[in-house]
Amino acid sequence: MNMYVISLITQNTLCVLQRVAGMFSRYRVNIEHINISKHTDKISYWNIVIHSEDEKVELLQKQLSKIIELVDIKIIDKVPL
Amino acid sequence: MQITGAEAIIKSLIHLGVTDIFGYPGGTIMPTYDAMFHEKDLRHILVRHEQGAVIAAGGYARATNRVGVCVATSGPGATNLVTGIADAMLDSVPIVCITGQVNSSLIGTDAFQEADIIGMTIPITKWNYQICNANEIPYIISKAFHIARYGRPGPVLIDITKDAQFNKLEFNLADINIHQYHYPKISEAQISQAAHLINQAKRPYILAGHGIAISEAEQELLEFANKTGIPVACTLHGLSTINTNHPLYAGMLGMHGNYGSNLLTNEADLIIAIGMRFDDRVTGNLATYAKNAKIIHIDIDKAELGKNVFAHVAIEGDAKEVLGELVHIVSPNNHSEWIKQFADLHNLEKEQIVDHAITPKPNSQIKMAEVIHMLSQKTDDGNSIIVSDVGQHQMIAARYYSFNKAKTHITSGGLGTMGFALPSAIGVKTARPTQNVIAVVGDGGFQMNIQELAVLVQDDIAVKILILNNGYLGMVRQWQELFFDKRYSFTELLNPDFVKIAEAYSIPGVRVSKHEDLSSAIDQMLNSPTAFLLEVDVEKEENVFPMVPAGCGVGEIRLS
C-alpha cells in the first residue's frame, strides 16, 4: 500500500468534482485529502491524496483521463506506507 | 435569425444529419415536440416507454455506426432512460439522449417531475450536460454528437430546461461544428514489434471484438487473417465481423462460445486481440487465462490496454488503421497444423453437441438450436439482421446462426439488458428498412418491453419476432439446475398467449410446437410484408453447452 499524490487540471465547470470523486468511489478508493482551487475562471488545479496500489492507480489515471473536462493528470508523489 | 431554443434543438439535429429520432413526449419537453410537429425532415417514432426509445436509438446506432437519438421528458421520462444508457455505455454505442428539465428557476425545489438526471447519469455516460441558456444549444448538441462518436463511442445525455427551450436565441448554422475525427497517431515502433511477434509465432490467434465492427475494419481483418493464415475467433459482439463459414473462423469465445475456440486459447503462443476488452465472460478465470501466449492488444481506448490482461504490445489506435498498417508488414504464412487442432475440436463439438441440437428427434419437443439453424438456412443471403435479447436464446442465436455479412448480429452484451431485442430491432429496422430484421427473444425478455409492439403497427415497422418459449427464465434456470441443485427459485413463468397479444395489436402471428410445422411457419414469418410474431414452444429444460462455469478457466470448458 502506498500513498499517492495526484495532481489534476480540469475545466472549472459544474459537476467536475462529482465526475472525479465518482471515479474514485467506483474503484473503492477513499480520498484522504483533496484541495481544489480556481486558477482562472476556466481552469481549476487539484491535489488529491489516496492510499492504494500501483495497478489500481494506473487504471484510475486512465479512467480519469477520459473525463471530458479533464485537461491534465499527473501522479506527482508516491510514498510507501 | 431569432428562433426558440426548441427550434434550435430540431434544426441542430437536422443539420447534424439526424433523420430519425425515438421518443416520448411529456411536460418539460413539450416545446421541443411542438417544434418538430411540422418538421418533415425528421421522422419521430413514438415508443410506449422511454426505455424503448433509448434502446431503439442504440439499435439504430449499432446497425449504422451513426449517432442514435432519443428524446424524453424530465423526471420519470429521464430516469426510464437509465438502463438503456448504461447498456450503450457498456457496449460502446454512440447515442445522444435529450431530456427535458424543469424551468431553471425551479431546479432544486423538488418541482413536479424534477430529477437530477445529470447526477444520476454521470457514471454511465461519456459526457452529460445541462443547458439552462438557449444560446448554448447549437454548440452543445454538436459537441454531444462529436463526443458520442469520437474514439470509443458511447452515450451522451443533454438535459435542457423548459425555459431554455422557450427562450429565443440568434441561430447561426456556423455555430454547429461538424467535427472531424482524429485518432491518436499509431506508434510505428509498436506496429513493427507486433509484426515481429506475428511473424515468429507458431500458434498465433486473433480475437476479434466489437471494435472491428465499430471501426468498420471487416475487410482489413479478412486481409490480415488471409495473409497471415491466423485463425480468428470472435467475441459475442465480434460476431459477423468475419464470415462464420470462412476456413480461418475458429468460433465464438466466451462462457457459451465454441469448444475449440475457448480451449485453444491456452495453447496459443500469441494472441492478437483487436477491439475487445478481455471481458470476464470471455476470459473466465484470469489466473489461468492464456498463460502460454504473448499478447498484442489493439484498442482505441487506452484504459482497456492492460486492464484485465497484461499486454506485451499495447497499441492504442483505430482497428481499421492499425490492421491497415500491419497487413503490409507481416509475412505471408499458414499454420495448417494449428488450424487442424481447431478443426478437430470443432468436429468433436459438432458430434457431441451441435448435431444433436439441430436434428429433430421423433416425439420430442423442438430445440432452440433447431429453430435458429433452420432460420439461418432460410436467410443465408446475408440480408437479415438478427437482434437477440438476453439469455439462453441469445447464446443459441449466436452459436447456431451463420453470420456471413457485417453488422448482421446485434445484441446486448455488456449489460445483458433483458427486454433489449424488440426496441432495438425497431431501431435497426428504422435504420435498415430494406433488410429483414428478426428479433429473437425469450418469453421472459419479450415481456419486459412487450408494449413496443404498438410501435410496429403505428409506425409501420416490419420487425419479425421469433419467441423461443420454454416457460422459464432459461439461463437462470440452467444455473439453478447445474449449481443450485435444481432449486428453480422463481424462474418458471406462466405466460400469456403471445399470438393473441400480437393479434390485439393487429400483428399477425403463429404458434408452433411440432417439428413438422416449423419450416412453413418460419417461411410465413419471413415472407410477411408486415411485422409478424412467431412463437415456438421449445424444450423446457434444455441447457446451453459448451459452458465455462463461472470462476473456471477457459481450459475447463464443459461439453455437458
Architecture blueprint of SSEs:
The complex is a heterodimer of chains A (81) and B (560).
Chain A: E1 2-11, H1 16-26, E2 31-38, E3 43-52, H2 54-65, E4 70-80
Antiparallel strand pairs in A: 1-3, 1-4, 2-3
Chain B: E1 2-4, H1 5-15, E2 20-23, H2 30-35, E3 43-46, H3 50-64, E4 68-72, H4 76-79, H5 82-90, E5 95-101, H6 117-121, E6 127-131, H7 137-149, E7 155-161, H8 162-166, E8 168-170, H9 188-200, E9 204-208, H10 210-214, H11 218-228, E10 232-234, E11 249-252, H12 259-263, E12 270-274, H13 280-283, E13 294-299, E14 313-316, H14 319-329, H15 336-358, H16 368-378, E15 384-388, H17 392-400, E16 409-411, H18 421-431, E17 436-442, H19 443-446, H20 453-458, E18 464-469, H21 474-483, H22 498-504, E19 509-512, H23 515-527, E20 532-537
Parallel strand pairs in B: 2-3, 2-4, 4-5, 5-7, 6-7, 9-10, 9-12, 10-11, 12-13, 13-14, 15-16, 15-17, 17-18, 18-20, 19-20
Antiparallel strand pairs in B: 1-8
List keywords for this structure.
heterodimer; A: 81 residues; alpha+beta; four-stranded antiparallel sheet; 4 strands; 48% strand; globular; B: alpha/beta; six-stranded parallel sheet; 20 strands; 38% helix
Describe the fold and architecture.
The complex is a heterodimer of chains A (81) and B (560). Chain A is an alpha+beta fold. Chain A is built from 2 helices and 4 strands; from the N terminus they run βαββαβ. Chain A has helices at residues 16-26, 54-65; strands spanning 2-11, 31-38, 43-52, 70-80. In chain A, strands 2-3-1-4 form a 4-stranded antiparallel beta sheet, with helices on one face. Chain A is globular. Chain B is of the alpha/beta class and 560 residues long. Chain B starts with a strand and ends in a 23-residue tail after the last strand. Classes of the chains: A alpha+beta (81), B alpha/beta (560). Chains A and B meet through helix 1 and helix 2 of A and strand 6 of B.
